[in-house]
Amino acid sequence: GTIPGLTVNGDGIQAFSQLAGVPKSARPYVVKPSAFSPLAWGSKGVSFADDLSLEDWQKTLQTALDSFETTPYILQEFHKSCRFDVEYLDANTGHVRPMSARVRLCPYYFLVGDEAELSGVLATLVPSDKKAIHGMADGIMSVCQVGQDTSPGGGSPARRDHFG
Q1: One domain for residues 67 and 22
Q2: Is residue 2 situated within a structural domain?
Q3: Residue 82, H or E segment
Q4: Quick check: is 69 in a domain?
Q5: pLDDT tens digits, one per residue of 11-28
Q6: Does residue 87 sit in the same domain as residue 64?
Q7: If DSSP codes are grouped into helix, strand and coil, which group holds residue 55?
Q8: Cα-flanking dihedrals φ and ψ of residue 66, to 5°?
Q9: What is the pLDDT of residue 160?
Q10: Mean of the per-residue pLDDT values of the chain
């Protein structure tokens, strides 16, 4: 059998080791340690497959396979997030500045009785030239409001998410 959803040029993949010879143009992947590893914090252990030479890609896959018992690694298809034009307060100058950013939204759910309820969302914004989205020095971390649209002329209340 093949790994569900994992194909290269339309061909199903049966083992991660089959990815070792895949050229950059056919590797839209990210390899990263499980969130339970100290290597996962701050994107330290993240490897973008299309940024690696063939030799480094092969080493990355082998490290991931060899580390399974102590630090499981995850292979994910990489999807570039949308760009947003945002403004932020520059703490050094006290001025509001524009930034073209990529955003990662992390929802927080809590059990209320027997139901999982969306209780909050953390937005992490980084300059749009960055691939990895994490709490870097150039990044912005902000809570999001989840609630009813109360804007003037909004008509009937509608669910709407807001940054900041």
Answers
A1: yes
A2: no
A3: none
A4: yes
A5: 888 888 889 888 888 888
A6: no
A7: helix
A8: -70, -25
A9: 41
A10: 83
d(CA 88, CA 69): 43
For 154, the domain range is 83-163
Is residue 46 within 8 Å of 52, Cβ to Cβ?
A: no
- Same domain flag for 68 and 24: yes
Asked whether residue 77 carries a pLDDT value surpassing 80, the answer given is: yes
Question: 3-state secondary structure string, 85-116?
Answer: EEEEECCCCCCEEEEEEEEEEEEEEEEECCEE
pTM over the 0.85 mark: no
C-alpha span between 84 and 70 (Å, rounded): 38
My answer on whether 121 and 73 are in the same domain is no
Tokens linked to 111: 């059990």
Clarify whether residues 59 and 101 are in a common domain. no
Tell me: do 17 and 37 sit in the same domain: yes
**CA 23 to each of CA 123, 135, 162: distance values in angstroms, whole numbers, following the listed order:** 33, 31, 40
What's residue 3's pLDDT? 84
One domain, residues 150 and 130:
yes
Q: Which of 59, 79, 63 is nearest to 71 (CA)?
A: 63
Structural domains counted in the chain: 2
Instruction: In whole angstroms, give the CA distance from residue 148 to residue 157.
Output: 6
